[in-house]
Design a protein that fits this description.
This protein has about 240 residues and is of the alpha/beta class. It contains ten helices and seven strands. The strands form two sheets. A five-stranded parallel sheet has the order 3-2-1-4-5. Strands 6-7 form a two-stranded parallel sheet.
Length: about 240
């Protein structure tokens, strides 16, 4: 099932990148006005960013707001998409710092590199690869961030182990992700569309914390960013074409 999920994710995000590149609009089951991905960044944060980076923002939070980034640090964004969190991080680490964005979709990488050019972000590098196998050496980054991507992986344990591997001793991991309170019906978990759209692959809170600790992380904290109820779920499913 893992390869099927990965193929579905790649196809979905390829189509999103192409829609933004071709028309400047974003068509997505988990973005562009739905209750999960709307209003995550302040106007001040996005004011000087390329419009395409903002339009194609597909996250469920703002990981750059979860921790302090310092000049000179090296940051890695897992599943960087069109690059909004990479560009925001690049501002904060400054010219002596470095920010890597990792994505597996060629079209997203092309869009992100164009956004990097428009933003004149010389301290940024986008890498092609999978978050289950990060193409960076051990202990090479100070901070790992991720925004609503780990839930899309069918091997979350491997992703978290890889994140821990590339962090320097004392490094930090700040992730915005969808977590579940209660149960998710089996038919939802089997739905590839909803997996790509950020719901079916989500872990329960206690599962996420346990996996982080098993990967080696300590001082694990989970802070609710937004809590969605039945009406939000109904709205999401409408966007996903499931109702």
């Amino acid at each position: 099932m893992g390869s099927d999920i990965q193929s579905a994710v790649r196809e979905k995000y390829r189509d999103i990148a192409k829609s933004v590149t071709d028309s400047g609009c974003c068509e997505s089951a988990c973005a562009c006005g739905d209750p999960i991905s709307s209003h995550l960044y302040s106007d001040q944060e996005t004011r000087d960013l390329p419009a395409e980076a903002v339009t194609a923002s597909l996250g469920c939070g703002n990981p750059t707001a979860l921790l302090s980034l310092e000049p000179g640090q090296t940051v890695l964004d897992l599943g960087s998409g069109a690059g909004i969190d990479v560009l925001l991080s690049a501002r904060r680490v400054g010219p002596t710092g470095k920010v890597y964005g990792l994505d597996m979709t060629n079209e997203m990488l092309a869009l992100a590199r164009e956004n990097q050019r428009k933003a004149n972000a010389t301290n940024v590098e986008f890498l092609k690869g999978e978050i289950e196998s990060i193409p960076l050496p051990d202990a090479s980054v100070d901070v790992v961030i991720s925004n609503c991507v780990i839930n899309l992986s069918s091997d979350k344990d491997r992703v978290l182990r890889e994140a821990f591997r590339v962090l320097k001793p004392g490094g930090r991991f700040a992730v915005s992700d969808v977590v579940v309170r209660g149960s998710v019906p089996a038919d939802v978990r089997r739905s590839m569309e909803l997996w790509v759209g950020c719901i079916a692959g989500a872990l329960k809170e206690e599962e996420y914390i346990a996996k982080l600790r098993a990967a080696g992380f300590d001082d694990v904290q989970l802070e609710p960013w937004r809590v969605y109820g039945a009406d939000d779920a109904r709205s999401f499913l409408t966007h996903a074409g499931s109702t």
